[in-house]
Write a structure and sequence with these properties.
This protein is α+β, with helices and mostly antiparallel strands. It has 5 helices and 8 strands. A hairpin with a 4-residue loop joins strand 4 and strand 5 (98-102).
Length: 168
């Protein structure tokens, strides 16, 4: 605890403040699915990760950032936080904000027992409550899982199928 003394005229004021990190917020929302999963190298072939390492070694991070500054800034953050091969989920909150949440393998494992198609077929969704740490505005780190609940409802997913015709 740090104390600051300030003497003003004949008044002695004592202020107390405590330095502590921001508390990690609880985040609650539904598991959200996307057609493209571009969050990390988790569950990807080693050849893909090795190709990235070769590119990074030959071109350098500076050149890769010139090519794709958004993606490479994200990858650089993941490397710094040792999350480059960590599992992750998409979580949609009640306010319609969507986050990518990185998790330990132990926290991620219970989520894998549910399949997207089974949830759709049974008109169910996964409701999660997590203790998180903010990495960026849309990237979070799960510090702990508070609850995982299978509830009635519609499992959300982004968009439909990817069609080349949509981009011509």
């Amino acid at each position: 605890m740090m104390r600051i003394l300030i003497l003003l005229g004949s008044f002695l004021l004592l202020f107390g403040c405590e330095s502590r990190p921001d508390k990690t917020p609880n985040l609650e929302g539904d598991l959200y699915y996307t057609a493209f999963r571009l969050g990390s190298f988790y569950d990807q072939p080693d050849s893909l990760y090795n190709h990235y390492i070769k590119l990074k070694d030959s071109l350098g991070m500076g050149q890769l950032k010139k090519e794709d500054p958004v993606l490479m800034t994200k990858i650089e953050l993941l490397e710094k936080r040792e999350l480059i091969k960590s599992p992750y989920i998409y979580l949609k909150t009640d306010s319609d904000s969507t986050f990518i949440v990185y998790m330990s393998k132990e926290d991620y494992e219970p989520i894998t027992q549910y399949t997207h198609q089974d949830l759709i077929d049974n008109h169910q969704k996964i409701r999660l409550k997590l203790d998180t740490e903010k990495l960026t505005d849309k990237l979070l780190l799960c510090k702990s899982v508070i609850s995982i609940k299978l509830v009635d409802g519609e499992t959300q997913q982004r968009g439909g199928k990817f069609l080349i015709e949509d981009y011509r």
